[in-house]
User: Fold Calcium motive P-type atpase from Tetraselmis sp. GSL018.
Amino acid sequence: MEEHKYHLLSPEDVFNTVGGTKEHTEQWVTQQREKFGSNKLQEAQGRSLFVVIISNFLNAITAILGAVLVLACILEEWIEAVVVVLVILLNSSISIVQEYKSEQSMDAIRHLGGATLATVVREGRAQQIPLAEVVVGDTVELKQGDVVPADVRLTEISRLEIDEAILTGESVPVSKTTAALTPPEDKHQDIAVGDRTNMAFRQTSVSQGSGRGIVVFVGEGTEIGKIAARLASGGTNKKTALTLTMERLMYFLVFVGIVFGVFIFWAFQWNINDQALLYASATLVAILPEAAIVLITVTMAISVRRMAEANAIVRKMTALEQLGKVTDICSDKTGTLTEGKMRPARLVLSTPDGTPMHELTPEGPANSRKANWSKPLASLAGEETETLNAILRALALCSTTSMVQTSPGSDELEGYGSPTELALMEMAWKISYGLRETIGSLDDVRAPWEPRGTFDFDSKTKTMSRGWFSPRQGGSLCTVKGAPEAILPRCAGSPMDNGKLTSVMDDLASQGLRVLALAERKDIALEDPSADIANLERADVEKDLKFLGLCAVRDPPKQSSITAVAQCFEAGIVVRMLTGDHPATAEAIAKEIGIIPKGPPGSSLVITGPRLDAIVAMTGDGMNELPLIVARCSPESKVRMVEAL
Assistant:
C-alpha cells in the first residue's frame, strides 16, 4: 500500500484519502480494519521461565560436563560426580535466576503506563473505545493528559501542545498546527518527524490544550509501530566470543583427555582392563576446569548486580562480555546526555531600541531561588535597575504556571507545567532573590496587580500576553513574551533593526539556547478598569510594545555525561548523538559534552535524520563516513544508523 504524506495534504484531502465518513457504522469500521490493519503493535516477547531454564542447560559446556558426570558414576568416583553435579547446578542456577529477574523487569517496563482507551467520534458523539479498536479514518479527540492512540492528522486545535520526547527526544512540547506543510525542496527527502507540526503521533502525550484529528496510521504503520516491528524482528541469538572460546577450550581439553587416554591404553599395552579405563577416565575428568566455569559465572553475576545498581537491565549474562568489544555508542540526548529539564541560562537587559546593556548568567542549583549571578544584581543602577525590575515583572505576571517554595522560607522550588514555563518562572525567582533587599519577595512583585485576561500562546502569533490592572497605581499593563521574531516587530523603537541585538540573539542560538523576548505595554485602552483584554483585538493589544530584553533557557548537559564521553574516547569508543532536536541545539550540546571538537564542524559530523535516510536509501548503508550527530532524527533513522554501524 502506498504511504501518503498526510502532513502535506489539507484536512479535506486527508479525509477523502483515508475513506473518512460521518456515518461510522460497524460495517465501515470492519472495512477500514481489513483495509488498513488493526491498531496493535508487534511486541518483542520476553522469554518464559521454561525457556530460560532450557537455554541454560542445553549448551555444549553442560553437555560435556554431563558426559563427565556419567563417566564418574560408571567409575564410582562419587566425590568427582558430586562436584560435577554441583558445578552444573550452581553454574546454571545463577544464570537462570539473574536472567529470569531481568525478564520480569523488562516485562514490567513493557506494560508500564500504556494507554488502553481512546476517545473517538462515532455516530455523532464522543465515546471511549479500546485502543486496539481504533481504525484509520476515525476522528479522535485529544485533551490535556491524553496519550495519542494512533498517528493522527490534526484538523482542529486549541492551544494544543504535545510532548514528543518518546519519539524525537526533544524535551520541549511541540505547538501544533492544522495547515498543510510545505514540502522540502529536495524531493528525495521528507519533513522530519519532529517538524510535522500538524501531526500527532502514537504514544506521545498531550501537555496542554485540546484538539481533534483524523487517524491516518494505526498499529505497525505508526511511527512508533515501525520501530517496534523492526526491533521485534531484529533480534539474534549469536554466541558471544567468550562462550565460543569456552566451548573451544572444552572441546580441546576433551581432545587432550582422549589423547592421554590413548597414551594410557598404550602404556597398558592395549590391555583395556578396569584399571586402564579407570586411569583414562580419571584423567579426562581431572583435566576439565570445572572451577573456572563457576568462577566465570559468578563474576558475570556480580557484574549484573553492579549494572542493576546503575539502573541497567542485563537480559543475558553473556551479553556483558560484549561491552568489552564496543566500538561505537549511539545515545539519545534528552534525559540521557542532558538533564531532560529546561533551566534558566541567560538574561539580556536591553534598551527599548534593542541595544544590549548587560548579559547576565545565573549559576547555581536547579529548582532553587538562589543563584550566583555573573554580576551582582544589586550592583546595577539607573536604567539597568529599572529594566531588570520590568523584566522581573514580565516574567512573574506573563505566566499561568505555578512555582512555589517547597516550604515557607525554603530555597527549594517546585512547580507543574511546561518545561519552558517552569524555567522562566525559576528565572523570576532567582531575580527576585537577588533583589530581595529592594523589592521584597516575588509575591510582593505580583501583589499590586489584578488579572485582566489572557491571550494564550498561539502557534501563529508565537506570543503570549496577559492584561493587568493596579488599583494602587491606577493604571493598566500588558505583559508579553514570545519568539523574538514575533515580538520585536511589534515594539516601538525598532529593536529589530539593531545589529548588536541580532548578534546577541545569533550567539545565544548558536549555543543551543531557546531564546524568548520580553516586552510590556502600559495604559491599555480598556473601556473600564474591570474590562478583559480578550474583549479587544489581539493585534490591537500586542502593539507599540516596549522591548525589555531576552531570556534564554536550555536543557543543560549532565556533568556525568561529560566525564563519560571523555572516558569513552580514551577507551577508543566513538560516541554518537541521535536526537530529535534541531541541528544547532544538537551541535552546541555535542561540543559542550565533547562529542565533537569546538569550532566549525565538518560537513559529515552533523546531518539531519531525513538526510541520513536519503543517503542510506541511495547507498544501501554504504556510507564512507558516518556522522557523529544526527539531528531531527526519527526512531527509524536511529535504527538505520545502528544497522549501518
The domain at 330-338+558-644 is CATH 3.40.50.1000 (Rossmann fold). The first strand starts at residue 117 and ends at 122.
